[in-house]
Amino acid sequence: MAKSEKEVITFRLESQMKDALDEIASSIQRDRSFVLSEAITLYLDVHRWQLEDIQKAIAEADAGEFASDKQVADTFAKWLPDANSMA
């Protein structure tokens, strides 16, 4: 597997956050860049997943693929025992 090209970026960080970052890096015997890279990777993964799910839901809605009233009620009843009294 080929290594991807890396670039240097700079941003401002509150002193307390930098100290916490350094503490984490030290505790896992890694450098600050490793911890930042891991954190950004996790952030991007979550937000990419969220955006993809939103786009998928919009496409389904545009195609008229909606849950029926019964499906919605059944779902609420599954998670909220008193949901049937809400209808």
Task: Walk me through this protein's architecture.
The chain has a domain at 31-86. Helix content is 63%, strand content 0%. It has helices at residues 15-27, 32-62, 69-79. It is elongated, with a radius of gyration of 22 Å.
Assign the structural class, choosing from mainly alpha, mainly beta, alpha/beta, alpha+beta, or little secondary structure. mainly alpha
Please compute the radius of gyration using only Cα atoms: 22 Å
Number of DSSP-assigned strands: 0
Mean pLDDT, to the nearest integer, reads 89
Number of helices, where a helix is a run of at least 4 consecutive DSSP H or I residues: 3
Give the ordered list of helices and strands: HHH
Fraction of helical residues = 55-70%
Low-confidence stretches: none
What is the terminal-to-terminal distance?
A: 56 Å
- What portion of the residues fall into strands of 2 or more residues? under 5%
Largest sheet: none
Q: Based on CA inertia axes, which overall geometry fits?
A: elongated
Provide the descriptors you would attach to this structure in a database record.
mainly alpha; 63% helix; 87 residues; elongated
Break the fold down into its secondary structure elements and pairings.
Layout: H1 15-27, H2 32-62, H3 69-79
